[in-house]
Amino acid sequence: MSLSLLLVLAVKMAAGLLADRVFGEARRFHPLVGFGRWAGWVEQVCRQLFFGTSETGMRLAGLLAWALAVLPWVALALWLRALHPQAHWVVDSALLYFALGGRSLAEHAQAVATPLAAGELDAARERVGWIVSRDTRALDTEGVARAATESVL
Question: What is the DSSP letter of 135?
Fold first, then answer.
């Protein structure tokens, strides 16, 4: 890879990181949350309509669901990049920004750490439940800290 391509990549990455730091996560509609819901719905429909419960059917349903959920967005990104010779700067930086969520993770971790440090285990359990998919009601202090750390990592 040439030095100029590495420099372009580094600038795009810096722009995506800066956007994450400045704007944080979208509060009303986060693209990745929306995509996750879309992908889950597509997978459910593919499993119910097209394939049975056999292992082969499940794999084919998963492959079809992946293609239907992912490929249109890849095509959209490629089309947007092709609109203008400089469009790749915005498209690539925006995609990285949407994928990161670093500032949001730090905010969520702090929301768990603060009550945990104050000995407010119930509040810490509730807040760690915002970032993990497991049941947090029975977690002890160490379990809450571990769950938050694993999610941030």
Answer: -
